[in-house]
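To: structure subgroup
Subject: Chain for Friday's discussion

All,

I'm putting the inputs and outputs inline so they're searchable in the archive.
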Amino acid sequence: MRSARLPAVKTLGDFDFSFQPSVKRDQLESLHTLSFIERRENVVFLGPPGVGKTHLVISLAIAAAEHGRRVYYATLADRGGHDEHETETR
């Protein structure tokens, strides 16, 4: 998991849903089953700064790594783009 370059360890269980009530817990729990990977679907988190996007992306990356998936975390700035976060799972 070290090679994933995750900036922190954040799990879905650590996410404060009361801080961000617009986030749908059931949708996130469904995403954490990782079935979107088998269907070859993309997941995109959009929103203003400070709403928990990075936390949730990291929690998905950790879940994927725990299920044997290779995970690599990079910001778009790392890749020569805007200063947003991107995680790639294979």
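Points worth raising on Friday:
The chain has a mean pLDDT of 85.
The chain is about 30% helix and 10% strand.

D.
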